[in-house]
Each structure stands twice: as C-alpha cells, then as structure tokens.
Amino acid sequence: MKRISISSLAQVLLVSGGFAASGCGGSTPPAATAPTETAQETPADATAVTEAASEIRTADASLPPAPPVVPDAPSSGPGRQPILQTAGERKVRDDDDDEAFKTGDDDEEENNVKPGSPEALLREMARLRSAPLDVVRQPIPGKPGKFEEKKLTPEQIAEEQKRRCHLIAQKAMQILIATRNDPAQEKLFNNAVHFLCDARAKLALAGEADQVELLNQDAEALYKRNKDSFAAAEAAHRLVQITEALAESSGNRDPKQAVAMARQARLFAERFPKEVNRAPMCLLTAGRYCELYGAPAEAKLCYETIEQQFGKTPFADQVAGSLRRIRLPGQTLTEFGGPTLDGGFVKLEDYAGKPMLIVFWSKDSETFNRDLPRILAAEAKYGPAGLQIIGVNLDRDELPLEQYLEKSKVGWRQIFHTDAASRGTRNPVAMHYGVTSVPTYWLVDGQRRVLAAPLPIEQLEGGIQYALKPR
Does residue 236 sit in the same domain as residue 272? Predict the structure, then answer.
C-alpha cells in the first residue's frame, strides 16, 4: 500500500506560531523537535489552507487506488441518504456515529457548508469512518451507469481501512491548520484532534509503528499549545490507550510494553490531575498489566499515584489491597487467616516457628495444575523439615472442590468460606491483599517475615531451602 506520512502537530503548530502563551506556564515539558523554516501566516481562505496543507509529506504523489463505490444506502428512512464522494466512492452517513461531531444546529445548515471548509472536511471524515468496509459497487464494463456488488477479502478490507485512516489524518491536519489560531473555531479544532488521534491509533495497531511516535509528538504539541485544553487531554489519553492496546496485542507479555503503558499513564495523571475518572482508570489498568507482565515496581508506582493523587476516589479503595500486598516483602505477616473447608480455622499462631508456603489457587487454573506436581514434591521433600502449606482457594462450589482435592491428593488446609458471598474472588483474604489472579504463591519464614510475594514457581525449591535455614 502506498502510504501518506503525516507530519506531526508539533510541525504545524510550531511553524505557524500556533502555541498559546497561556498554555505554556509552569513545568511545561519540551515539545517535539520542530522544523526551522520561517513561520508562516495563518491561511485566510480555502486556497491558503490547501497551500499550508502541503506541509503534509507524502511518500508517493498519489493515493492508493480505492474501490470504485461503496454500496448505496437505503433511499429512505431516518438518518440515511446516499452520499457520493471523491475517488468514486459512495458513502453512507451514520447519524449516530456523526452526532458527536455536528458543527451546525440542523440538517439545513449542512447544505450551506462551503466545500473544502473545515466543516465540510469534518463531515467527510465522519463519513469515511462510518462507511461500510466489506462491500463495494464497481462499474459493469460496457454498461454505463450499471454497477455490481463485490465483497472485499480480509486483506482488501485491511488495506481499505488503512487508506481511509490516512485520508482522515490528512483532512484533520487541514482543519487544524485552518482553525489553530481562532478561538471561535476551537470546537472544530477539538473534533479534528479526536479524528486525528483515532486514525493514528488504528494505523499503529495495523502495524505502522511510526504512528505511535507521531501521536506522542501530537500530544506534546497540544500540551504546549494549551495544557488545560480538551485537545491536550484527548491526545494524551489516546496515547495511553494505544500503549495498552499494543501491550495486549503483543501476545508475549513483554514487560517493556507494560512499563511503557505505566509511564504514559503516570504522565497523563501528572499533567491532567482534573481527570479524576480517566487518569486513575489508566493507572489502575497499567498497574494490573505490570503485575501480569512481571514489572511489579512499575505497578507499585501506578497504585501509589492513585493513592496519593486520587485518594478520595473509589479507585483508591480498589488499589488499597494491591498496595498492601506489594508492600509485604520484608514485612511481618500479621493479617492472615480464615475458616477452612473441613470446618476449622487457620490462625497464624498455629504456625509459629514454621516456614509457610501460601497458595492462592483455583482448581480450573491450568497454570496451577501444571505447578501442582512440583508443589507436592516440595511438600514431600521439605514437609518433614517443617514446611507448612496453606491454600487460599478461590473456587465457588464446595463439592467439586472436595472431589478435586481427593483426586489430586492435596492434603494441606484450605481457607474456604461457607458463605457463598465470600467465595471466589470475594474471598476476604484475597480481597484484603488485592489478589485477583491465580495461582499466586507467597513464602513466609518461621518468624512470619514475608520472603517473597509473589514467589515464582521456578524459585520454589531454592526459596524453601532459604526459608528453612536457621536465623
């Protein structure tokens, strides 16, 4: 596919002098590197806008070929009308998708919009995004005015998606150039930023890695332009979202991806402290990923940011247990216990002077079932030396659990509540320490000092040997 390499907003705003002085106070971070050309005046008409848009670099002189026509919309019915676009495409407007980006009061105003104006470009972007991707209508040779429908292959759909994203990005940049210095057109500017960020995110997920850096430059430029603006927060939030999506799509649980997400989430929270919903949600999600991907130090920083900066929000309650757990290593375990499956009760006092392996688990966990033979072997080998194993079971049903324990020869005590509301992930011990994934292993020495939480299964035997050494 022939690509359009879109310039960053830093180039547009710096070259044009588009940064607002009021948005640069305090500890404004450095902006992305800008070109050194002489600043240009703001274009005043459509011709000047087109000339300014030449700042957008293209890898090729022409766009990739487009499918001739997309299927007609129903000719009647609310919110539907066929719209013929350039490049021979027929688009269908989706009023629901377009509603958030209306710039006029009614449909009558749309008929008076000047072609090539920011308002017209905005509507073109909405239609590009909402039009069907999987079917096109193409001319029938020898039959003027006649068309036939053709289903696109998955590969063609992917290419068409990329092509449209590049077109949307190009049109968004034209709007930004035309509206960047006019406060009366801030709504158009914000809408264009929304479309630009969305296009960059989709292209990044489609494999165009440079779009992540371009989005990063956009976020920096918008923050410097006006750090309190909707546009600055929108770009920064979308950058967090794209790092999350890339971490999730990588499939290999790369800690670097989780760390990148965590750092973007903390930057977002630092720069936009008034985002009391989005910022802590980003931090919470990033922290979960970091724990899952093996970056506990970064997870702790994310949770502590919520604790310190958003302590009066419900998110602070959600991370309280996780922070309690993350801070355990090196501390004395004082809060642990509960009813057992056999009707007894686990108390720390019962294990004085004995090392403990605490196992948070569920019978349906594939990982736990793979680990179980190693745990049973460790019990057989080190149990006579004093090792105690305590299970914290997160299953919900008692009978299947009892059957599993009998079949698998698991004999250690299990904290399991008779009250159904305290089972599964609602187990009070798991909730108190924010344990949401299984299996999780903790190692505690005979003086109740937490040696590892979590303990990687690969370090099981070495950790037990260390715990059994006299202190």
Answer: no
